[in-house]
Amino acid sequence: MRYILSIDQGTTSTRAIVFDERGGIAGKAQQEFAQIYPRAGWVEHSPRDIFGSVMGVIAEALVMADADVGDLAGIGITNQRETTIVWDRRTGRPISNAIVWQCRRTAEYAEKLRQDGYAPFIYERTGLVPDAYFSATKIKWILENVQGARERAERGELLFGTVDTYLMWRLSKGRIFATDYTNASRTMLFNIHTRRWDEDLLRLMDIPACMLPAVLPSSGFFGVTDKEILGAEVPVCGVAGDQQAALFGHLCTHKGDVKNTYGTGCFLLMNTGDKAVKSTNGLVTTLGASAGEIPPYVLEGSVFVAGAAIQWLRDELGLISSAAESETWARRVKDNAGVYIVPAFTGLGAPYWDASARGIICGITRGAGKAHIIRATLESIAYQTQDLIEAMKRDSGLDVNFIRVDGGASQNNFLMQFQADISGVGIERPQTVEMTALGAAYLAGLACGYWTMEQLEELKGGYTRFCCSMSGQERLAALQGWKLAVSRARLR
Ligand code: ADP
Predict the structure, then answer these.
(1) What pTM was estimated for this model as a whole?
(2) 379 Cα–ligand 1 center, Å
(3) How many C-beta atoms lie closer than 10 Å to residue 369's C-beta?
(4) CATH classification of the domain holding 383
(5) Closest approach atom of ligand 1 to CA 433
């Protein structure tokens, strides 16, 4: 029996899944690791913890699958995006903790880039808006704040990588120094049109080019693992950032295909094929994963607070004891009774981009109760997603007929039905929820000849489908209510 190993290195935990030829899960393991908060708004991980957790889950998943490293046909890696690691080329030692995507320490510098008028230039090259979220400002911070770092970087002694790069480097004992298009496109240093590191951006950020990894297609040969580290030489042949891996896992490989991941936040991605769509609604353009040499362009939007609003109902308001219970409560009432919740806890993202907005509950009448509030919170996840879908349709000129979904909150049938109703689209929820890991496995399996694209289409399995059952008039009225609520959440 031969298998594909998928390593899913996420923000709070690391998973390894051993997939068999049928795409079934033969073994699986998960480990959490420490989140480090040195100051308010700062988030770090220890690269050693990350690598340790990866080695741990690989061993565990292989035991569960009753397999050896030698049984692996290939390895796929998917990872938390943008998180930045800089290490010594010779010793392999990181010169600081990893700066996590959520970390806001470089917000001021990103704001300065905006104020200095660099936003259009950065957008044109990278498809991104200047923000602390992306790797570029984090690398710069390390070079400027770790003693001696800049000189060492200029002498070619230091390497930069996102987590995929660091893992490959460690697994191969320094022989693989590479990343893939999807991860590179989140650094804010990569030109998504020429598909090269952008020299002008490197100059602007003052980052030496010799620190940067080679950039390769997501599905292809990156190199082999080291025998001493893993026990055998296994090809690493699939790499993609988590959201793009999930998009590929859903087999959203055609222009206009859309997936939404309902987790703590939501990530909505649309494959726009060979056309880079210029957004006028504050969405970002990025690169997707593909089976071939050329990556597709992807339009991406995110909802900051989605499943997190359900956690808020549970932990702050104490209205429910588990996230799943929200569904039972929502079904107890026939509608929201005019109650809307806008969970703008940290402001509003696309298409509003209003950092000063704050959460509100509005439209309360004497008959409104707990069930209405819970229902309105679930509905807010769908409304925020609908705002993004609308923006994507406007930007791309493409129709959205169905959306493929995954993530914890996609298990909520009420939410999925409401999304279908309010967006007037079909929702397709696959049986397996491990779309991110599956996407990385698919990319690896295609590259090493384990699977063909046709086989993957066959493996896809069934979907639970939700179809729109709301009249156009009802939808319009509901959306008007939402827009009004959003305007009330905004201060300006
Ligand atoms: P992440 O990867 O962002 O940690 P997950 O995909 O594991 O997120 O999903 C967890 C989130 O989904 C939590 O915020 C939780 O509140 C929400 N969630 C999980 N199950 C349900 C459910 N049945 N209904 C609504 N929300 C849910």
Answers:
(1) 0.93
(2) 15
(3) 14
(4) 3.30.420.40
(5) 6
